[in-house]
Design a protein that fits this description.
The protein has 384 residues and is α/β, with parallel strands linked by helices. The chain folds into three domains: 2-265, Purple Acid Phosphatase, chain A, domain 2; 272-336; 341-380, no CATH class. The protein has helices at residues 21-38, 57-72, 87-90, 94-97, 134-140, 149-158, 279-282, 285-288, 310-317, 329-338, 348-360, 366-380, and strands at residues 2-6, 14-15, 18-19, 42-46, 76-80, 102-104, 113-119, 122-128, 167-173, 175-176, 194-195, 205-209, 215-217, 219-224, 241-247, 259-265, 272-277, 296-301, 321-326. The strands form five sheets. The protein has a six-stranded mixed beta sheet. Helix 2 links the parallel strand 4 (42-46) and strand 5 (76-80). Helix 1 packs parallel to helix 2 and helix 5 (134-140) runs parallel beside helix 6 (149-158). It is globular and about 65 Å long. The model has no long low-confidence stretch (mean pLDDT 88).
Length: 384
């Protein structure tokens, strides 16, 4: 059984003011072309299909075209909602689409949808676990002890009917502890949205979404596919790919031996790259003659003096210049003086404490702290 694992399409996304719709349309067509060669039985899309809750019409059209292309190839599709998606809007019409083999996770109601695929090795159950917060799970399991995100996921999985004699696959959109992040993701400072990898131990393959860099967590079969395109310059060295998973017979306790995983490179219409040098260097013909100047660029100028209308002049050569900054004595001094704090090392309440003390010259009062605690709990479901 061959499966494609995708996630975090973020259809409709803009990066530094540039719409990515044309690039997304191109890469989805590339994936359909790969499907013609690989002939997968199903495609797994692990959340963040859209970049925002109310998707623009162009993004809706892209998804419609992509799903239609897969259905015409008789390829089944399994989709879950991510934190960027509106679960209600994404699931609209899902009962009709089920008849075409397009299966979308409904709004979580205390149960997880599952479907069964079959091949010469038997059945494989596919579970669709949409993005969940602890507060959502507590609503349906008021008697369960749910103190964090791991507890929430374990509680939900504990209610699922998992047949260990079958091959079991789950789609999930969570931040699994140990994953490497980049700038284009939304995570909670302090790591309170972490889910332990052990929560997914019952599954033979875990198709994860939420993290934009492709990676595995602890085992080959617990994997983030990453985004099909680069969405920040922190990803400029990433090699984007399509994860192809081939499930064979479940014939031992160690199922890893029965899964083949390969990655097929996804070459974009326009890459996202960084270049650096003086203004005269990066505008010299010899510097850019071998570059694809249609790519998206972040250019760092090392001139000590700012160049007048530099971004406008540089876009004559690099029309898709997204970011322009300087690296010189002035910017290095400003960066050193800023004393930036690594937000991921601190809980939200600790960050607020530091900000309050810096701005007011005194520590926050207990009454103010209690009030802030209540606000944080309301937003993040007691995971502050």
């Amino acid at each position: 059984m061959k499966l494609f694992h995708l996630s975090d399409l973020h259809l409709g996304k803009s990066v530094h003011g540039f719409s990515m719709l044309e690039d997304q349309e191109y890469i989805l067509k590339v994936i359909l072309s790969i499907a013609d060669d690989e002939a997968p039985q199903a495609v797994l899309i692990s959340g963040d299909v859209f970049d925002r809750n109310v998707a623009p019409t162009g993004a809706l059209r892209l998804l419609d075209d992509f799903l239609d292309g897969l259905a015409r190839r008789n390829i089944k599709v399994f989709i879950i909602s991510g934190n960027h998606d509106s679960a209600d809007r994404l699931a609209f019409g899902s009962r009709l689409m089920n008849r075409s083999g397009i299966h979308i996770s409904p709004v979580y109601d205390g149960e997880v949808s599952s479907f069964t695929l079959s091949d010469e090795y038997g059945d494989a159950d596919i579970f669709l676990l949409p993005f969940l917060k602890p507060v959502q799970v507590r609503k349906f399991f008021p008697d369960a002890e749910i103190n964090n995100w791991t507890d929430a996921v374990k509680t939900v999985i504990g209610t699922m009917k998992i047949d260990e004699n079958k091959r079991n696959i789950i789609l999930a959109h969570q931040f699994v502890t140990g994953a490497s992040t980049c700038e284009s993701e939304e995570i909670i400072v302090g790591g309170f949205d972490n889910v332990d990898a052990e929560a997914f131990s019952a599954f033979d393959y875990v198709a994860l979404g939420h993290i934009h860099s492709p990676q595995r967590i602890k085992r080959e079969t617990l994997r983030y596919s990453g985004t099909p395109l680069k969405y920040s310059f922190s990803e400029w060295k990433h090699e984007k790919s399509l994860v192809v998973v081939e499930l064979k017979e479940k014939n031992s306790a160690d199922f890893i031996d029965s899964v083949d995983i390969k990655k097929i490179p996804l070459i974009p219409k326009r890459d996202m790259l960084k270049i650096k040098g003086t203004y005269l260097e990066v505008t010299a013909r010899d510097f850019y003659k071998d570059l694809n100047t249609d790519n998206y660029y972040q250019i760092t100028l090392t001139d000590e003096d700012d160049q007048p209308n530099a971004i406008g002049k540089l876009r004559v050569i690099y029309p898709n210049l997204m970011l322009l900054n300087y690296d010189n004595k002035r910017t290095q001094t400003e960066s050193s003086a800023s004393g930036a704090v690594d937000a991921n090392r601190y809980a939200p309440i600790e960050l607020f404490d530091m900000l309050y003390e810096e701005q007011n010259g005194q520590q926050i009062s207990e009454k103010q702290r209690d009030f802030l605690d209540d606000i944080i709990s309301e937003i993040w479901g007691d995971n502050k």
